[in-house]
Amino acid sequence: MNQTQLTVPLLDLKMQYEQLRSEVEPMLREICDSQYFVLGPKVVELESEIASYIGTSRAVGCASGSDALLLALMALDVKAGDEVICPSYTFFATGGAIHRLGAIPIWADIDPVTYNMTPESVHEAAGKCLKLKAIMPVHLYGQTVDMDGMVEVGNSLGVPIIEDAAQAIGAKDATGAMAGSRGTIGCFSFYPTKNLGGFGDGGMVTTNDEALADRMAKLRVHGGERRYYHSEVGVNSRLDALQAGVLLIKLRYLESWHAARAKNASIYNEIFASAGDIGLVAPEEPAAPARHIWNQYILRVQGGRRDALREHLSQNDIGTDIYYPVPLHQQECFARIKGDALPNTELAALETVALPIFPELESQQVEYVANTIVDFLT
User: How high is the pLDDT of residue 140?
Assistant: First the structure.
């Protein structure tokens, strides 16, 4: 198919900023004039807004999504030698937070379609555990895990669920519940590339347990309920007021951005479906009331052609990335943690590629990406 060559980056945050500049810059000046930079009224307001959006009674801001996971584990008293089941096919912070406390990540395999850890894989991993303390499913790429099954397996094993929802703010499960609302604790990231991203690092934990919320609020300020008085050792993980201010503005647009991403995903899916069997597996959109918020659009390229396709796309000015080329159980730093082979995880690392999906893309750009892929593989 002959088509005009375009430039399509994997992500362009400058486009979003230009749309919000007139709202963001006065807010930044307001905070600078106040000189209230750490925690404070803006963070309290954001915590209230996020709790309302997610559907929990409490939300507690922190310095990053990685710290959100750490605070959740600390609040649930995960300690050295304890075991936490999590996927290997995920961003490093999932396993890193567990290991940082001296606990042991127990790797579970994923579903080959959704790329999410399954209740069945958790059951299998739990059979090898001696000191299981928690389960940490990841809502990967913007689609929730099977939360009905995950809650059931957590209850049967008598351990809490920590939802790693860093990529899934606004995603809904099969019941229509928001990611981060059904586990014991939900963990979110506001890294700039997320659907709701700040101007730097930022994170949030959500929960319906008031005692856990209070404890995490204390843990984020060195374990002190008030200044200079510490009942336990915590960490320094406070959310900046500047980040909270930016996120409060962006939160107003989040639903429209979800809709734009879904529109782009539907264009990809339609073109790939019409191409027939060319060795592609496109992601599936779940049936309502579940909702995929398309933090990434992940395409599986079969037949060992993924890397050649990426090179071809690069030559045609199309940005891509691989999430994740080396699963956690194959990382050098986790070499001492033994476990079974994870065939679905290992194949996903070899065959998947992320395509541009950000909301400011024009339909013509999405079509150009999809048609360039189809032309190469046919």
Answer: 98
Identify the helix (H) or strand (E) that includes residue 4. Answer: none
Q: Which residues contact 25 (CB under 8 A, 6 or more apart)?
A: none
Helix (H) or strand (E) holding 281: strand 280-281
Mean pLDDT score across all residues of the chain: 95
State both tokens at 214: 């209070």
Run of H or E residues at 43: helix 41-54
pLDDT at 100 > cutoff 70: yes
Asked if residue 333 is part of any domain, the answer here is: yes
At residue 36, the pLDDT reads 85
Are 224 and 351 part of one and the same domain? no
Closest CA to 318 of 294, 299, 304: 299
| Token couple for 271 | 């073109």
pLDDT the model gives residue 18: 93
Distance from the Cα of residue 131 to its chain's centroid:
27
**Rounded alpha-carbon distances, angstroms, from residue 349 to 110, 326, 343:** 11, 6, 10
133 and 105 Cβ atoms separated by less than 8 Å:
no
Smallest CA-to-CA distance from 98 within 349, 329, 266, 252 is with 329
Q: What is the CATH number of the domain that holds 359?
A: 3.90.1150.10
User: How long is the chain?
Assistant: 378
Angle, to 10 degrees, between the axis of helix 241-251 and the axis of helix 13-34?
130
- Please report the beta strands in 305-361, taking only residues with DSSP state E, as ranges in sequence order: 352-355
8 A C-beta contact, residue 46 and residue 247: yes
**Same domain, yes or no: 118 and 180:** yes
CA angle 154, 159, 165 (to 5 degrees): 65
Cα 134 to Cα 5: distance, rounded to the nearest angstrom = 50
d(Cα 151, Cα 132) in Å, to the nearest integer?
Answer: 15
pTM of the model: 0.94
Residue carrying structure tokens 């909301």: 359
